[in-house]
Amino acid sequence: MSDESGRNEIYVQSFPQAGNKVRVSTGGGITPIWWRDGSRLFYRSETHLMAVTVSYRPELAISVPQPLVADTYGRPLGDTHTSFDVTPEGDFVFTRPVSPATSIKPRVHGVLNWAQGVR
Fold first, then answer.
1. Per the structure, how many domains does the chain have?
2. Cα(92)–Cα(25) distance, integer angstroms
3. How far is the CA of 114 from the CAs of 1, 89, 94, in angstroms?
4. Phi and psi, residue 5, nearest 5°
5. Is the preceding omega at residue 16 within 30 degrees of 0, hence cis?
6. 3, 92, 115, 116: least CB-packed within 10 angstroms?
7. Alpha helix locations (H) across the chain?
């Protein structure tokens, strides 16, 4: 994630040798998470949980970002810490940050069967 364009966007770049940097998000993005086999990258836009497909051969290629579900979950202050994850089964888990003004304990919210909701 970088704000070099003037707003937060998601990029991928080769590692450990820097180079071949590709912008992933098209309308802003924060807190990227890789799918466990590296074939997909998930991130939060202003309104949705987004996904792109990543291929590496013959060279790095990123698909057009696709919205998966509306993102109505809490966001950490500053949007710099990941507040969601994807399970090995493909379900998403979101956390809601604790408000300093309350003593409410954080809650974990799961989005199960999200693929059916997209259909």
1. 1
2. 19
3. 25, 11, 13
4. -85, -5
5. yes
6. 116
7. 114-118
